[in-house]
Amino acid sequence: MASSPSGLHAAFSRIWRRRGPLAWLLLPVSLLFCLLTGLRRQLYRLGVLRTERLPVPVIVVGNIFVGGTGKTPLTIWLAQQLRAAGFHPGVISRGYGASLDVPRLVGADASPDDVGDEPLLIAQHGGCPMAVGRNRAAAGRVLLAAYPDVDVLLLDDGLQHYALARDMEIMLFDGRGAGNGWLLPAGPLREPLSRRRDVTVINGGAVSGMPDPAFAMQLRGQWAVSLAQPDQRMRLSDLATQAHAPKIVAAAGIGNPERYFAMLEGEGLRFRRMPLPDHYAFDVDPFAGSDADVILITEKDAVKCRHSDALGNDARLWFVPVEADIDAALANYIVEKLRGFPTDRHPGLPHLQAPAGL
């Protein structure tokens, strides 16, 4: 049974919490990593490495902390907010684990093996066109050719993808903050905490050492939906107060499973934890032999489980959809930025003049 993330990942997670002896031992490698990443940014800034600019504004949603911090719910929320404000957003992504040779559009009925689990979630809930590809600029061109009314692009998880010029950057953290504040491998950061950004969002409340001001974000889930029969759902709070308490397992193949478990505990549930590696493929059934009456999985995992005959028909499996609860001031700030800059690239489209992040 796949009951925990890899031992190597768990070990580094412990090292990255503080500046202990092992972190200090790895610090020289981190300094070299810092020099190399700084050199790469400088080469893009000087034009030695080519950056492509698309004819519409690009807003990047990403993080510098290794692993998941809640980018997908934030991207979905932002797409919905932009639509409500009268824009026509599209989303582009790398598509983690996707079997892609060329960029492609993502439909709500696509296979997660082909496009990735997170892009499929965005396509299902974002209410806007979605494209994936290793070359994000090429993916953007494919999307714009198919949907010429798109007037702003969201780049999901692309802070370090400098080959695509960006006009605004949203950097997301969660309750882990910046860990020990050091770069890989002595710490969990891909780039220095001082790296500039336009907006900072903290998923899960304020944490020490973060830039101020920052926008607060909470992920909320109140319902469980049957994987085998999606028309059936139950309140998590009702599940917690059943007279004959069922045996519950909570499983999560996301970057920070503890965040998911804490959300369930906040609804009063008691369960056995089953953390899985991020983007777990479910090619092996991790629940085989489990005596659980109810298995609560994330919606990100559900998009893959429903493509398995065994898992898709397992009546014990229920997924928990989550929504991002974010201060409306963030949407207002982004909308005002988009509306406040002159057009000079594409008729009728706003343009933020100075690309961020470099």
Can you describe this structure?
The protein has 11 helices and 15 strands. It is an alpha/beta fold and 358 residues long. The strands form 2 sheets. Strands 3-4-2-5-1-6-7-8-15 form a 9-stranded mixed beta sheet, with helices on both faces. Helix 3 packs parallel to helix 5. The chain is globular and about 65 Å long. It starts with 6 loop residues before the first helix and ends in a 19-residue tail after the last helix.
Structural class: alpha/beta
Shape verdict: globular
- Poorly predicted regions: 1-5, 343-358
Number of strands: 15
Q: How many angstroms does the end-to-end distance come to?
A: 44 Å
**Total number of helical segments?**
11
The share of residues in extended strands comes to 15-25%
Note the run of SSEs as H and E: HHEHEEHHEHEEEEEEHEHEEHHEEH
User: What's the pLDDT, averaged over the residues?
Assistant: 89
| Main beta sheet strand tally, sense and closure | 9 strands, mixed
Give the SSE layout.
Blueprint: H1 7-15, H2 21-46, E1 58-62, H3 71-84, E2 89-93, E3 104-105, H4 112-115, H5 117-125, E4 130-132, H6 136-146, E5 152-156, E6 168-173, E7 199-203, E8 215-220, E9 223-226, E10 233-235, H7 236-240, E11 248-252, H8 257-266, E12 272-275, E13 294-298, H9 299-305, H10 309-312, E14 317-320, E15 323-326, H11 328-339
Parallel strand pairs: 1-5, 1-6, 2-4, 2-5, 6-7, 7-8, 11-12, 11-13, 13-14
Antiparallel strand pairs: 3-4, 8-15, 9-10, 9-14
